[in-house]
Amino acid sequence: MSSLSYFAFKTCLQFKPVLEDPYQNHVMVFENPRGIRKCTIGVEGHGREGPHRITIGYDCLKPPNIEMLVMKALGFPFEHNRASRDIFIDVQYENIEPGNNTIIVQFKFDQQSLISAQAVNMSPDFKLYENIFIEANLQSTDYDGVVVVLYPQEMNVALPTHICSFIERISNLDKHVHKVATVWNCDYVSGGRLILSPTGKISPYHDVKVIRDAAKKGMMRALDAGMKKPLLVVENVVDFPDGQLVCILGALEAFYKPLQIRERQDSKNFIRIGLHTEEKEAEPFERIVRNAIALEKSRIFTRDIAGGDPERMAPAKIVEYIKDSFAEDSNITVKVIDNEHLIAEEYPLLAAVSRAANRVDRHKARVVEIEYTSSNPSRVSETLMLVGKGVTYDTGGADIKISGRMAGMSRDKAGAAAVAGFLKACAILKPPHLKVKGVLCLCRNSVGSDSYVSDELIISRSGKSVRVTNTDAEGRLAMADSVFKLAEIAGKELNPHIYTIATLTGHARACYGSYTATMDNHSAKATNHSGRLQFSGSRVGEGFEVSTVRSEDLAVNAGKCNGDDLVQYDTDAKYRNHQLAAGFLIKVGGLEDKNIKYTHLDIAGAAGMPPEDPTAVPVLSLCHLHKVLL
């Protein structure tokens, strides 16, 4: 009944569903006993084929919130994307101006369809967005435990009112609660179990990742304790403006199970997840939860691709997975180029990398072009064009990796996975101001009798000759022709910006550890793009370090042999290896003299290596920077 009470609280209406012979008639009564807020209520019974129809006054409730509140009042789980919501509810606005005007809310479903919809929500599939709820009552019997992120006492973060004194007594009793996650018997919360998960000390050098880590550890401790229905307290921390979003994302991350585990067995480790806040205004928190669920769905998609083993996520399997995932997204188109001869003609550098793998059909190179189109093209103000490195396994090729350094190279496709994940976020959240083109350069750097080798001179799509010097530097070759192709068409797009995202160099990892190296060309640098991306990353818990591409980083890629245009990799270079890789992509992509914004992201250290799960970097930061969020 909490959702019905909440609906009544947000409007001046009393909601009384009455089921009279549900397979024949379903009567819904909305009453306005006090006559306040200018509501006009129409009451109608109807047969199974007829719609519900209610008129709500303008001053009662602002239009954007109506669908969500009514769906909640009818007992649906909190999250439902726009496509699924449109199946059940249609909101028709008439004369939307303050005063004597109305909003028409028409329900499209009958009792039987409601029953069917609720049955779908009980599916055992790994779909956490169907089982997430906002919960106002910390003692609700719907949950079997409560998780609280514990902040340093000096930060004065407000704790839930009726357990505040209990937590304070525990903190005074045992200071160790500020170091590790602990479980306490507490009669004041759901299930009688309270988990305190501390952030630890937060200094001026810490960022919002401390909240993410604490929320994740708290949820993992809840699972270890046997909880299946945890309720997370999401506090508002003024020092971290997006702290609530990051807290929820950290908690959801704890529930992730790799795709191959989910396909083999029922690995669902929860039944229900609750989110509690003490906020007086509910709408902003609901928007945060919507964003968090959409982002986590996108990150699951990214992790599945990046973390799949070399066979489960071979190029052919990735194509299949992407097509299935985007099948119902009307604003997404997917084009696959898998003809070996066409790839050799249009993407000659990628074709060279893939040559040894072409003997195995499932390992052959594929170029996947995914495009998101705004539902209102007149509102588009920016065109993003992303190229992702999708090397499904990197043996090193003829310059083979030795001494165990090949292990983990199935993660060399994390860049392509991130591009797909960002497109997934756009498909769910539907930003009206963006047009997005994503290119996934999928291949496998195998070794065999037809391997490409050093000393080969290959003519790129741009017409420039490239001398191969190290077959283990295949990533830049895999992406180069796609970068040039996008640069060719960028001039016809509105405010274009090209990205390359790749686990490209060990040098980036050596320089910055688990942080992403971001590098702008001259046009992007003029807008301080990498600086702004770094700021967005700091807001959502993804770290970036800004590197500068200098003239030397372009010059070092000039051909060394007589007549060569470019060298794939200068084997004599001892410094600036991740910058010179960006310089190579700028030159071979034809971006050196064009005023087209270009940013290269080297996620080699940030993508996550086994045994850790993939991180899905930089999906969150791109969504934050480019205002994909609701």
UniProtKB/TrEMBL annotation:
One of its GO terms (biological process) is proteolysis. Keywords: Aminopeptidase, Hydrolase, Protease. One of its GO terms (cellular component) is cytoplasm. Its cofactor is Zn(2+). Residues 470-477 form the Cytosol aminopeptidase domain. SUPFAM superfamilies: Zn-dependent exopeptidases. One of its GO terms (molecular function) is manganese ion binding. It holds the Pfam family Peptidase_M17. InterPro entries: Leucine_aapep/pepB, MetalloPept_cat_dom_sf, Peptidase_M12A, Peptidase_M17_C. The keyword Hydrolase applies. Belongs to the peptidase M17 family. This is Cytosol aminopeptidase domain-containing protein.
